[in-house]
């Protein structure tokens, strides 16, 4: 039955709870692994959220679902392999997820990009159009006889390519692709140092802000990169530092930016403030708490829903996993297949780590935890979460490492540990106090000296023997 559905590739479907369906076939090397569909929360923070997942069956098939009213790129990953396709509301897609490229330089713990094939697409399907356009663009340089292209020659080449692209796609009606073309060229011209004033006039000025369009926002972010910091260094913007560091006053910051006469649109100005505040939060020139306070004010006061959503996502990033913040709970599974909650172990300090049996580095750290557990077992609960895709390799790891006798769980399809602790590589360490607050985040690894932290924290206090002093 699944094969029949797989052949119905880009068919229109009625709008149910999940209005986009992806029916996939993966290379045999992925059988039994988890495949995940992720989406961006917005195109300012670029936070990624997991929308759907499935386990690839014995024949290589899987199914993913997404609810969206917008055409957009989505990410599909298996372990550290990630690919991108574009999806439209009310469609069913058939895709093929390839094997890992053995010739690629796949460093441990890093993501590797793969090309996902979309089946059944005709020449006017969005993914087919985008592939065709990118092929034409790449051919510009493959067919060029010049070994070195000066900026002037490159701009001439792009201008000619713009004309030929308009002719090539003149009969295409897909509105997203039209926009894709326009802002792909905007990005090209931005990278070739075209006049910012001209680019602003052509692609930004007097145009609606396209918050949900990936290519528009990609150009927007490149065009206004470092804008707020650059303006703060000007004569008119010099008080921006005081607006944030001294007063943490959002309205004062707004007023400071009104001195820039090139930005007349209040909505655009507020979006630029949001974008700049992300950079300021991680800048040593600004007080993190003051920046956070300004973002919170903007979140409360903005009348633009898209800005409220972006500010909310920013605050989530700031609040999450900060030392002193509440440790996120999660569900993972033990070797018996039973679900286990982190909060089951409240009451003692917890040393939490993530590891993979495929990672030599994280395995070395696991060996070092053996001695830590012997010394601090009465004070600290040691919990490890295995990131292996396969339950079989997880159980094999436990069997071959009997000295690792603490709580070792597994991140399966329904687990939330990896997501809740924002684990991007094959390891991670957190130290949680008895009140379930993050005492160290990230925590020192055993090889980095977490033992010294434990010694300082749990060292017995000697009674004071000096008379008159308690």
Structure summarized in a few sentences:
The protein folds into four domains: 120 residues, Sandwich (Immunoglobulin-like), CATH 2.60.40; 94 residues, no CATH class; 93 residues; 127 residues, Glutaredoxin, CATH 3.40.30. Helices cover 39% and strands 18% of the residues.
Would you give an account of this structure?
Helix content is 39%, strand content 18%. Helix 4 packs parallel to helix 6 and helix 11 packs antiparallel against helix 12. The chain is of the alpha/beta class and 470 residues long. The longest helix is centred in the middle third of the chain and has 18 residues. It has 4 domains: 120 residues, Immunoglobulin-like (Sandwich); 94 residues, no CATH class; 93 residues; 127 residues, Glutaredoxin.
Q: Please report the number of helical segments.
A: 16
What average pLDDT do the residues reach? 88
Q: CATH architecture of the largest domain, please?
A: 3-Layer(aba) Sandwich
- Strand runs, count: 16
> How would the global form be characterised?
globular
Radius of gyration: 26 Å
Strand fraction: 15-25%
Largest sheet: 5 strands, mixed
Strand order of the largest sheet: 3-2-5-6-8
> What is the total number of structural domains?
4
CATH topology of the largest domain: Glutaredoxin
């Amino acid at each position: 039955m699944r094969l029949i559905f797989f052949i119905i590739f880009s068919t229109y479907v009625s709008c149910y709870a999940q209005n986009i369906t992806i029916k996939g076939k993966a290379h045999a090397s992925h059988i039994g692994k988890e495949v995940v569909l992720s989406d961006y929360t917005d195109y300012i923070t670029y936070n990624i959220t997991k929308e759907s997942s499935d386990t690839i069956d014995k024949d290589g098939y899987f199914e993913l679902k997404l609810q969206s009213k917008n055409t957009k790129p989505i990410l599909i990953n298996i372990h550290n392999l990630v690919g991108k396709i574009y999806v439209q509301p009310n469609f069913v897609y058939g895709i093929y997820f390839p094997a890992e490229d053995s010739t690629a330089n796949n460093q441990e713990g890093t993501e590797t990009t793969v090309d996902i094939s979309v089946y059944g697409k005709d020449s006017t399907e969005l993914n087919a159009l985008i592939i065709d356009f990118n092929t034409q663009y790449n051919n510009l340089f493959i067919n060029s006889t010049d070994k070195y292209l000066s900026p002037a020659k490159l701009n001439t080449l792009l201008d000619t390519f713009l004309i030929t692209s308009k002719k090539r796609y003149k009969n295409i009606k897909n509105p997203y692709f039209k926009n894709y073309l326009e802002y792909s060229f905007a990005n090209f011209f931005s990278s070739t140092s075209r006049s910012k004033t001209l680019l602003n006039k052509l692609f930004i000025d007097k145009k609606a802000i396209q918050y949900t369009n990936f290519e528009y926002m990609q150009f927007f972010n490149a065009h206004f990169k470092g804008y707020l910091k650059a303006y703060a260094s000007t004569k008119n913007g010099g008080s921006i530092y005081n607006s944030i560091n001294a007063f943490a006053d959002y309205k004062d910051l707004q007023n400071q930016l009104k001195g820039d006469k090139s930005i007349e649109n209040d909505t655009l100005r507020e979006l630029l403030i949001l974008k700049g505040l992300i950079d300021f939060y991680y800048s040593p020139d600004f007080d993190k708490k003051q920046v956070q306070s300004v973002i919170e004010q903007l979140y409360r006061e903005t009348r633009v829903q898209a800005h409220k959503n972006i500010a909310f996502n920013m605050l989530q990033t700031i609040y999450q996993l900060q030392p002193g913040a509440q440790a996120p709970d999660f569900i993972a599974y033990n070797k018996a297949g039973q679900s286990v909650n982190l909060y089951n172990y409240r009451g003692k300090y917890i040393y939490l780590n993530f590891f993979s049996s495929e990672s030599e580095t994280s395995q070395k750290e696991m060996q070092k935890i053996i001695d830590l557990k012997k010394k601090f077992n009465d004070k600290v609960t040691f919990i490890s979460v295995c990131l292996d895709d396969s339950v079989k390799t997880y159980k094999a790891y436990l069997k071959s490492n009997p000295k690792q006798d603490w709580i070792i769980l597994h991140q399966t399809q329904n687990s939330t540990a990896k997501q809740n602790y924002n684990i991007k590589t094959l390891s991670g360490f957190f130290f949680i106090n008895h009140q379930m607050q993050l005492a160290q985040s990230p925590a020192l690894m055993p090889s980095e000296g977490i033992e010294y932290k434990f010694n300082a924290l749990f060292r017995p206090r000697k009674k004071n023997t000096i008379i008159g002093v308690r």
